[in-house]
Amino acid sequence: MNKQELVNLIFKKKTFLCVGLDTDVKKIPQHLLKAEDPIFEFNKAIIDATAPYCVAYKPNLAFYEAFGLKGMIAFEKTVKYLNSNYPDHFVIADAKRGDIGNTSAMYARTFFEEYDIDALTVAPYMGEDSVTPFLQYDGKWVVLLALTSNKGSHDFQLTADTNGERLFEKVLRRSQFWANDENMMYVVGATQGRMFEDIRAIVPHHFLLVPGVGAQGGSLQEVCKYGMTNECGLLVNSSRGIIYASSAEDFAQVAAEKAKELQAEMETELNKIR
Questions:
Q1: 210/162 Cα distance (integer angstroms)
Q2: Which 3 state secondary structure label does DSSP give 213?
Q3: Are strands 234-238 and 184-188 parallel, antiparallel or unpaired?
């Protein structure tokens, strides 16, 4: 999916919601544990229920790798289900890969060839040659970590050099030499508030993948106020606030209701720019 297709999809569906599939068998409804593949059955139900209200899904690899082969089979089945039944939805593998060039090339082959994922989160801190292997695939996206929503982001990302340039700003500026807004996005946590102004000063046209709305305390309205562009430019992720809204047998229905609530808020924000 190219950038214009993503923009068109957002305005067509009046939403820029990304549903995070952080699926933990210890948290899913108990009745699903009787299924042959509880993780996939949970994901399938969540996807079917929330698809009308979102444009993207983001399975977090840690939640699948934690269960070994069974977990990775569930991940693969989930991706195939999305690609077969919801081909217009943007699929992001949240894997935060990043290593020396030949290893990154293998990671890229895994996610872009084997799984046919649309986008992959990548850690930039080993530099250009660790990121460029992911950029060799037409129609695929790198989502580079820039300024994350966790408390520890202050340990390194906000530290400044002698010229006052903070590390996340250096990442944004330097990565402009590697790719453009047609194949690179950035992760920026919703809890960063007005920091979105600083980010937009450097990358005014790139899409931002924004986790942290809902359970982590980020404000959708604040993110939109400081981070939205005339093309929207945002994919706002919600995981726990949607997929674990209920642990009863009505979990999918409640997830749909929560997704619909966010979609309605997003429609309001989109109406401000078009």
A1: 29
A2: strand
A3: unpaired
CB 263 within 8 A of CB 14: yes
Q: Are 13 and 230 in contact (CB under 8 A)?
A: no
The alpha carbon dihedral of 50, 53, 57, 63 has a sign of negative
96 in catalytic set:
yes
Predicted structure pTM score: 0.96
Structure tokens at 159: 């530290």
**Residue 215 in this model has a pLDDT that exceeds 90:** no
Convert the pLDDT of each residue in 19-64 to its tens digit. Answer: 999 999 999 999 999 999 999 999 999 999 999 999 999 999 999 9
**Residues 96, 170, 225, 260: which is the catalytic one?**
96
Nearest to 120 by CA among 172, 84, 79, 174: 79
Cα separation, 128 vs 145, in Å, equals 13
